[in-house]
Amino acid sequence: MEVTRTNFKDSLSTVYSAIEEADFLAIDGEFSGISDGPNVSALTNGLDTPEERYMKLKKHSMDFLLFQFGLCTFTYDQAESKYVIKTFNFYIFPKPFNRTSPDTKFICQSSSIDFLASQGFDFNKVFRHGIPYLNQEEEVQLREQYEERRSQSNGSGNPSYISPNSNKGPGSIPEEHREYIGRVVEKVESLFTTSEKTVDLEPCTGEKCTGVLCDDIMGFQKERYIQISKVDDEERKRRERQKQEREQEELNDAVGFSRVIHAISKSGKLVVGHNMLLDVMHTIHQFYCVLPEYLLYCFLRLLDTKLMATTQPFKELINITSLAELQKQLKESPFKSPKVVTAEGFPSYDTAQEQLHEAGYDAFITGLCFISMANYLGTFLTPPRAHIPSQSKLIQPFVNKDHVLYVTFPKEWKTSDLYQLFSAFGNIQVSWIDDTSAFVSLSQTDQVQIAMNTSRYAESYRIQTYAEYVQGRQQVRESQGHSTQSWDEDGWVKPHYTSPSTVGAGPTGYSYGHNRYTPFTL
Amino acid sequence: MEVTRTNFKDSLSTVYSAIEEADFLAIDGEFSGISDGPNVSALTNGLDTPEERYMKLKKHSMDFLLFQFGLCTFTYDQAESKYVIKTFNFYIFPKPFNRTSPDTKFICQSSSIDFLASQGFDFNKVFRHGIPYLNQEEEVQLREQYEERRSQSNGSGNPSYISPNSNKGPGSIPEEHREYIGRVVEKVESLFTTSEKTVDLEPCTGEKCTGVLCDDIMGFQKERYIQISKVDDEERKRRERQKQEREQEELNDAVGFSRVIHAISKSGKLVVGHNMLLDVMHTIHQFYCVLPEYLLYCFLRLLDTKLMATTQPFKELINITSLAELQKQLKESPFKSPKVVTAEGFPSYDTAQEQLHEAGYDAFITGLCFISMANYLGTFLTPPRAHIPSQSKLIQPFVNKDHVLYVTFPKEWKTSDLYQLFSAFGNIQVSWIDDTSAFVSLSQTDQVQIAMNTSRYAESYRIQTYAEYVQGRQQVRESQGHSTQSWDEDGWVKPHYTSPSTVGAGPTGYSYGHNRYTPFTL
């Protein structure tokens, strides 16, 4: 399914429920370039440590744009022994939201653009109809803008009905505007003596009114004029509510595609990608926040099929690990192609007709590769099993190692309280979920169990492993009968305001200029 | 006429003859962005001196891509008292030429891209079918690559017929390749004993052969193999000639759109643009060379219609000088819309149906504005004249002031000789045309006449003003009956090699790391 700015809002509930019902998700991104420094092979050679590779990519790859995001959701149908898939191709573009919104600049690399062009990539769709997005900092700024504007507008405080010429002597009106202003005053005053409820002023350029409800209106012929309405208190409140709702919707529109990423993050589902470091880094960078200095401890459960294919027992069986070659090899013995059908209403891909380098197709193929490898692991069991679910313990060794704890606490707690709590366990990283819960990532794996043990008798707070948290969420969901209601407006991690006061636990792997924003929860 | 990579070569002679026959040219460019620093209005406000504006644009605007170039040629038809126009829309993209060619990175600014998208700009056409280009330095590098490869290839020196196993013992062939190499030797040796003229080796990966003519051939099924041919000296030379011609054509293809700019530069025609500094800077930067430190002394005869409209006698008559507004005002009295028809075979624009921000259309409108203003100047003459040609003295005050001399000299001269010759006249800037001629730009206008006078009795060299040079070229062309032959392969200014020895005349307004390349001749 192709998702652009045009159908994004209408598709969102479909996307949310596809994520919610899935057993695992596969993702892939297409970018406007790879490297603005060393050439691509130097950036992606296999000799680097993960840390070195992360630093190289952070330095040389983050000014490119992720402009197509592919998501393929895989749901296992136990009765039919097959996977049902839903594929989404999101076109992404940072269309400026208004005059004060960030005017993003991004780099294009000719070789990458030329390569995508040769694959039939539709740049017009990206630039004309791409879905906008904001990272958390931009979202907070925009929210603040709205709040500031609201507090400045007529609506705040008591309405004051002041005739425009009562506090400004006619002497302060320039000669050339005197006639116009005279007509305005006459018109507005006529409101109080006639039964008319509104009066439209002549088109003009931005005079500010006080005292009555003013609406800046665009006429049929694109002329702008101010409409002044006689209203009672009830009506005024109703209109303000309407305006706030409209503003909230505008804000949601501006956050745009980031809402999909928030939903993926919050779902706790296994996310599968092929050679996915760059995809994950771009996703965090564009839709969450500036990347941290050190290799990120990722809150997503990530599995890289390229990494999996180069690990035992696959290493011996698979020669070339490019996505296309991997898929070919996984069709042959000892592997088996999985049984997969496209969900009704979704356009289906034909694997015989390669559409590589469309993000949605690549995500789909990546998911197929994962299933084939996962199911191969089942042949070692006694008795052998044909289907290995993505939650199986057999998969665990291939999932990125996370040392993430889910912590609940009283709503008075600030980031500094969390740093204090974990001060004995080395560096931590905090990602707020809401007022009373957060993810805390420990830099030292061996400290996880100790932290869990010490918390056992605590009363004010509670610690769960990430796995326990995900399991808990799943149980709640199942008891609700797979309701998709949980994915409405509040279904994602919100930026959390903490006081910019001191932070206890020394160097944290983060170097923010301020600590007001959640680093990220991906 | 739309020109892309697909029809560029076939259109080139049409473009050349349109430039050649024109009275003046109008140009316009579309870019992937305006400013990577201060916002656009800060960059383009009218308060800066030209030097300040140049420095700002140089610093903040040159990493964007000029990806559409509009050219509209205007030819006056005396008999019919009307202009005949030819409009070209060139789509430009730095498609990498081969694996070693520059992989250009350029910035996109979301607001600019969004604006062009809203105007229906076709990005797919740019990225899929854009014409490549090289600046002079890249052209020289590519030429050197070809020469190096040629001197390394079999063709150079005497062919040496050596059997592959005569200078390498079989011991140096790895075990796993021995069988394959054996078959190769057998096949090649069979060439000398049979009547066959060629032998195709089995597909392999890059073995280097000595002794016979080897061709790297791509088979029907995309398998690559080496073909070995038995040839006599005659045949070998013929094939080398063919190869050189092919390489020259490849080189021309790579220089691509820059050839059009070279032709405009060489033509000496008046070039009209609207608010054209950025267009000119991008043109020099992409198709010539790194921009100099100081405001460029431009070798083109440039006229900016925005500047013209804000100069007497137009200043009093014209309020708003944006292109669209200017055009509207120039339709009304005291101005007159010029009589213009589109040349046969060219798609015509309808000025009623605005297509602003397509480069070709903007160039067209700019030309119309110029003609209206030029003809208005004719109303001051006694008797008044309805048509003022672009070469008229009445236009001179609006053309950028150039202090450019055309110098011819013996072919032994180097850049240092020119610096020595002009050492008495302040800073100069040299742009080579060929082995025996160059443009020399004097920084001090008042020195031009003195330089001319001192050269009068010189025998080894000759100096003409730029105007004399242009006039001379025109006379030659007319005597040839407007032949378009003069615009073939040699019709543009070539990079000129001078020894990297000392340069006499001190600071020159140029800060090149080397002086091997012509700064530019635009």
Automatic annotation (TrEMBL), chains A, B:
Gene Ontology terms: cellular component: cytoplasm; nucleus
Basic and acidic residues compositional bias, start-end: 142-151
Principal subcellular localization: cytoplasm
EC number: 3.1.13.4
Subcellular location, record wording: Cytoplasm; Nucleus
Gene Ontology BP terms: nuclear-transcribed mRNA poly(A) tail shortening; priRNA 3'-end processing; siRNA 3'-end processing
Domain annotation Poly(A)-specific ribonuclease RNA-binding: ranges: 399-471
Domain of life: Eukaryota
Family annotation (PANTHER family): POLY A -SPECIFIC RIBONUCLEASE/TARGET OF EGR1, MEMBER 1, POLY(A)-SPECIFIC RIBONUCLEASE PARN
Protein name: Poly(A)-specific ribonuclease PARN
Source species of the chain: Oncorhynchus mykiss
Gene coding for it: LOC110487504
